[in-house]
Amino acid sequence: MTTATAANPTTPIAVGAQAPDFTLPDQDKKDFKLSEFAGKKPVVLFFYPLDWSPTCTKENACFSQDLSRFSKYAEVAGVSVDSVWSHKAWQDKMGLKHRLLADMHRKVIKAYGLWHEAGNISQRATVIVDKQGKIAWVHVEPDITKERDYNEVENQLKKLG
Questions:
Q1: CA 20 to 30 Å from 112, out of 3, 29, 79, 129?
Q2: pTM, whole model, 2 decimals?
Q3: Residue 28's domain spans which residues?
Q4: What is the distance between the alpha carbons of residues 161 and 143, in angstroms, rounded to a whole number?
Q5: In a domain, 4, yes or no
Q6: Which residues are catalytic?
Q7: Which CATH number characterizes residue 69's domain?
Q8: For the segment 41-90, what is each residue's pLDDT rounded down to a tens digit?
Q9: Listed residue (115, 116, 117, 140) closest to 127, CA to CA
């Protein structure tokens, strides 16, 4: 459940804004609550359109293989509109190591301004939330079919210290 919403569900949340809190189930039906990481560690939210799609499959496989690049700095989770059951099947098939959060009602995607209205899916975006619960960095891929830049994500995490 989110506690705040973006002014426009298709306009990315601003750097410096308070991150809307939320609770979403992961592929194992365990709740992921953003505010539980406040004061402890930053959080990287990798928003992606759909499980099983070509770019998302390649991206999540690469991301999972290099998870330690990011997890040494922050808690990491993927977020899409898919169900916990789809996430679980995809994780098992792909051997994914990171948590996959199910935002089937699009509440978090809209609260973060990352809704791709035409497809009723998430944009491909990366959001870094700092330890204080503020948005530290946001990047939306202009071409939804293109993979995100992992080096840029790692560089942004390094800046948080």
A1: 29
A2: 0.91
A3: 23-160
A4: 30
A5: no
A6: 56
A7: 3.40.30.10
A8: 999 999 999 998 888 888 888 778 888 888 999 999 999 999 999 999 99
A9: 140
